[in-house]
Amino acid sequence: MIPSTLTPADAQHLMARACLGAEAPLLHSLQGKSAQAAIQELLSLAVDTPANSPTFSSWGSWESMLHNGEMGQARDRLNQEKMMLKQWWMQHLLTTASPLAERMVMFWHNHFTTSINKVNQPNLILQQHQLLRQHALGNFKTLLHAIAHDPAMLIYLDGGMNYKEQPNENFARELLELFTLGAGHYRESDIKAIAKAFTGWTVDRNNNRFVFEAQHHDASGATFLGQTVNDGDQALDVILAHPRTAEYIAEKCWNAFINTDQADPAEISRWATNFRASGYEIKALLESVLLSDAFWATQNRDKLSKSPLDLIVGLFRSQSLLQVPTVELVKWSEKLGQNLFVPPSPKGWAGGAAWITPQSLLDRYSLLSKLAHSLPHATLTALLDPAYQLK
Known about the structure:
The chain has a domain at 308-389. The chain has helices at 8-18, 24-30, 35-44, 59-67, 71-95, 99-111, 116-119, 122-135, 140-148, 151-156, 170-180, 188-197, 232-241, 243-257, 265-277, 282-290, 293-296, 308-318, 326-335, 358-371, 377-384, and strands spanning 201-204, 209-212, 222-224, 227-229. The protein contains 21 helices and four strands. It starts with 7 loop residues before the first helix and ends in a 7-residue tail after the last helix. By secondary structure, it is mainly α. Strand 1 (201-204) and strand 2 (209-212) form a beta hairpin.
């Protein structure tokens, strides 16, 4: 039942699921408010842009080093810049004043996955990351069109090598299976059709931008989901008009905010209907999710395993800990199984029970003991309780 007045436990549940841990000031401000008022307060927090965005090497400088045979120097610089990017995001996660927005940046980062280890151009990954933040609480239709034009995404899923002379279906396949409709809701012929629609979409690495090469585009038209499309943007609009797209994103929200069990079909249908009716406004979807009986149900609390990022960031935002260099926190996240900007596959991190293994539990306890040794004994004991791994 949706609480009319948030108790301390209710406020902590809301912040653990929808924010980045239960930091005291915000936690106290939400207590005593209605769920509706608390959620509106979280959604109204302005998305803050991270300070001091790092500057990375241009594509031309990488090409110059490779041309001059400076392979070792290029590799070392690339590794340094990858770590700079990871530390930069970790610092923002620890300090952001808009935790719900940043939670959604994490959500979209694991939905529209891209690995820096394949793109190998940190400035493109940074550009994509800022794109996700810009639209994290915006409009999904706008975000989907933007991500389809994103240079890092086109490189990661080989969309930049999709020519009418030699079609590449990788981006088309993942767009349908992982980003919008989900497996079982399209045919193999639809993959071929949408790949055809996206031919000629490529990347200008020197200028970090999307390029359409008309000479490599097949403009003869294709039948996709029963409709004729001539280009990628038309195909995206067909996807967005399909009822399954809103349902698929709603199911992803169920797994992220409720539990990893089978979603309630009636709830998913209600969320998806509201999502479509809003014109794909992400805030409208979040309101449906966070103001649902399923979100507040007792049986759904403590049903989500904390990701390494949730564990580390939540601990620092909710407890008074000694300062630890962000490079160490980045390394701990990687050790626990979540290497920032390097998802294991286009499917992202599996999440849920996959985070908890005998070895990962040992590593988590080691981390908690190391970071929390300055806390009172009772607090440390609570953090080491297996229940703390759930939220």
